[in-house]
Design a protein that fits this description.
The protein has 485 residues and is of the alpha+beta class. It has 8 helices and 14 strands.
Length: 485
């Protein structure tokens, strides 16, 4: 601080903790600094703030009052035509870089006025300087005549006298800037000779942090709008600090276009290859998921929230992004063709293996068939060589078969006096005592044809005779005969 009695403006961060806002505090006569102005920049994340610089000065207590603003769109370098640089940059021209502007315009409101600030270099000291002019009369004269109301403002008239102001660096190694009023020309003919009054210092920009106004010298400036001069000095000092003493890329919000390394592979894989690998990894009991039949295509957003490009940098970003997307589509197309070719080879090899296995299996079946055929023919030849055994003789159908007879023990038959047979409670008919088996009538037999031993003629011996039992060795097994049949 040069003098605590002089009005001094301090640039501090904003009270509302917004990064792209700032506050301008005023201190005078040793008092505590109080908010005087509010400094606002556009949001850097907004697409409308790309590749440009803007700042506005508002009232600190009433944020709707706008005193002035600056909009600065830089010029850009021309794209390089060197093939080596294009090759090193991935096939696209290098990005255009912003050029430091040689002038900027300060727009004042109420009354509306534009102040052009020209940037140059001093001839004697070779230090940078910024020169601007302001009219001596800024407001219209009050008049009731309607013709006076149709006239333009005095600030836009070329006949209005103007004051010349200049920001100049205090030294080559110094960071201080001095704003002064250029001396008037004292030559009667108005020629630019060394007959000017000395410059009057109006303010000092100390270390790019605080601006001190020389109030006694400001009273020597015969202007109708001293408030406008104060606003112009503040805005011009802020532009000098941020644009001409800051980083160009941060000041103009220049962002690099997203680019991938040249060796990076695309992140998305072919759907057929991914489905085949996933199908091989699945267990046999689990079915593969249903995949879409169509190949996913690259979707490029055609609608963008950004305004149409108005500078070469925006057009370059669009060209770079278009070239990048084109390369990505071509790379994905190559990957797809490579994957399809590999899948075709795999399927062809699988079909060849299946055909080879089928041929081997058929050949094995044919060999086995030939072997069985040879064995069958061999067995057939051996069977033809052996003599045929005689067939057994068939029985004569004219002869009656002989049936074995069984002798049953004779039981006495007791006949009752009545015609009915006597029932003894046995299921068999009892032969009366004294009666022989020959006296009992049996259908189909005759007692006169039987031999004395009780056997039928032509009867074969039973199985007991075969085992060696004779007729007189013991009691014979006889069967009871029915009394009815």
């Amino acid at each position: 601080m040069l003098d605590e009695n002089l009005p001094t403006f301090y640039l501090r961060p904003s009270i509302d903790n917004v990064k792209h806002h700032a506050s301008v505090l005023l201190s005078q006569y040793g008092s505590e600094a109080q908010p005087a102005y509010s400094l606002r920049h556009p949001d850097p994340s907004s697409p409308a703030s790309k590749n440009r610089y803007a700042v506005a000065l508002y009232d600190s207590f009433n944020p709707e009052i706008l005193y002035g603003e600056v909009l600065l769109i830089p010029e850009w370098t021309q794209p390089s035509l060197s093939q080596e640089e294009i090759r090193r940059n991935g096939g696209v021209p290098p990005p255009p870089q912003p050029i430091l502007p040689s002038s900027f315009v300060i727009q004042l409101y109420n009354p509306d006025q534009q102040v052009v600030v020209q940037h140059g270099v001093s001839k004697w000291s070779a230090t940078p300087q910024w020169v601007f002019e302001m009219p001596q009369q800024s407001f219209r004269q009050p008049s009731v005549a309607s013709i006076d109301r149709t006239q333009s403002d005095p600030s836009a008239s070329e006949s209005t006298p103007k004051f010349r102001f200049k920001w100049k660096k205090d030294g080559k190694l110094s960071k201080d800037y001095v704003c002064s009023l250029s001396g008037k020309n004292t030559n009667p003919d108005g020629s630019n000779r060394k007959h000017n009054e000395p410059d009057i210092t109006l303010s000092i920009f100390k270390q790019l942090r605080e601006i001190t106004m020389y109030e006694p010298n400001l009273s020597r400036v015969e202007m109708e709008d001293p408030k406008g001069l104060e606003v112009v000095m503040l805005l011009s000092a802020i532009v000098i600090r941020e644009v001409y003493n800051g980083h160009m890329r941060e000041t103009f919000n220049v962002s690099d276009a997203p680019r991938r390394p040249s060796g990076e592979r695309p992140c998305r894989k072919n759907s057929n290859d991914r489905a085949h690998r996933h199908r091989n990894d699945l267990p046999t009991s689990q079915a593969p998921p249903q995949l879409p039949s169509q190949r996913p295509t690259l979707q490029v957003q055609t609608s963008d929230s950004r305004p149409p490009p108005t500078d070469p940098r925006s057009q370059w970003e669009i060209d770079v992004e278009t070239a990048h997307l084109k390369k990505q589509v071509e790379r994905e197309e190559r990957e797809r063709r490579r994957a399809e070719h590999a899948e075709t080879k795999r399927i062809k090899k699988m079909l060849e293996d299946e055909e080879r296995k089928a041929r081997e299996k058929q050949l094995e079946i044919d060999r086995e068939t030939e072997r069985l055929k040879r064995e069958f023919e061999k067995e057939q030849r051996q069977a033809q060589r052996k003599p045929k055994p005689p067939l057994p003789s068939r029985p004569n159908p004219g002869l009656q078969p002989s049936y074995p007879t069984f002798n049953y023990p004779q039981a006495p038959v007791q006949r009752p006096h009545s015609a009915r047979p006597y029932y003894t409670g046995s299921p068999y008919v009892q032969v009366p005592s004294g009666a022989t088996s020959s006296s009992v009538f049996v259908p189909g037999t005759s007692s006169s044809t039987r031999p004395p031993d009780g056997r039928r003629p032509g009867a074969k011996p039973g199985f007991l005779r075969v085992l060696g039992h004779s007729d007189h060795s013991g009691p014979r097994l006889t069967k009871k005969q029915s009394a009815v049949f």
